[in-house]
Amino acid sequence: MKIFLINVVIVLVCLVCPTCCVVKSVQFDQQCAGYIKQATDANTVELALERLNMAIDYVEEHDLTEGYTSVMWRTEDENIGFWYENLKACQHELQAGLNGTPLEKTNLLLKIRESLVDNHDGGITLTIPGGISRYPNNLLYGLWGLLSFFGIIGIVLWDLYQGWEY
Predict the structure, then answer these.
(1) Using alpha carbons only, what angle is made at residue 67 by residues 62 and 71, rounded to the nearest 5 degrees?
(2) What is the mean pLDDT of the chain?
(3) Which burial class, exposed, middle or buried, applies to 73 when counting CB atoms under 10 A from its CB (0-12, 13-18, 19+)?
(4) Most exposed residue of 9, 40, 41, 136, measured as fewest CB within 10 angstroms of its CB?
């Protein structure tokens, strides 16, 4: 019975890691990525600026202004500094375009959309560094996930070796 309880505790600890990752991802989507998406979908410069300001406030409050989300090597698609500067540049362009003509505003909205989204065969996705919702603890989450995986494998192998008797 003691081994069974230890196994249950280990499995529960192992399940906390993916749960935390999902929660962090949902929080980022709700408090930042959602506003960026709305800024790209906005029909007016004022609305786009309002939504982009909300996203940038979140980014600055959570210190997502520099670094890389990668753990082992740096790739430019994980460059948080470039992404943040791009958001700020879009914000400045929207502020400068508030008094433009209707044609200038329409062109500006198209430019902002092109700057903040990527077109793929599978559709349109936001240009956001992968793993940013877990930043700056990406290494911790990676190690936790790896240990959780091996913990579950260890339990299964141990139980197979012991004959699943409790």
Answers:
(1) 105
(2) 89
(3) exposed
(4) 9
